[in-house]
Amino acid sequence: SSLGYWLGGLLIVLGIGGGIAWIWVGLVGFDDAIDDFERVPVGQVGTIDLEEGDFVVYAERGGGVPQGNFIDGIRMRPAGGEGRGEEIQFEDYTTEFTYDLGGRTGRAQYTFAIDDAGEYQVRADDGPGTTATTAAFGPSVAGDLVSAIVGAFVIALGGIVLGIVLIVITAIRRRRHRQRSWTAGAGGPSYGAQPGMWNPGPA
Fold it and tell me: What band does 185 get if pLDDT is binned at 50, 70 and 90?
């Protein structure tokens, strides 16, 4: 039956289509996550609202090469009262991660942790070397992008491999069936004369 060929082809198409859909959904979620970042213009004091957890500071500007985005420094402390409170400590982002979405480019520059959810007063320094125009604060989104790409690859590859395997198995079975049919036909009854018997021809 040729049904295996059709199912194999369908699996290949579904795998590729599923991979494309997966990465599209992942990229939309990635874009939404970046849009949800808290932001403060460089050189100004702003107030942002953060939940408890680990965060990243992204140096942003409108356009340009994201690798060149840089903020000279960040100062942050809990907001409220007279602005007193222990300053948040920042560490350098140890790997290179950038994005270029919707006319906005960004580069991960610092990491920090928030132990108490609430509002924080922050200033992004505009000192020498600063090229960014905005400091964005949000969770790490590098893992989301990797998950979208890897997930799409796995789905597409899985569908293609399963489809090819099914097509190959179907081809092997069809070939064996033809061979058995040919063998059965070749070994069927013979209607010719048996050895040692007289078989006169037609008159």
Answer: low
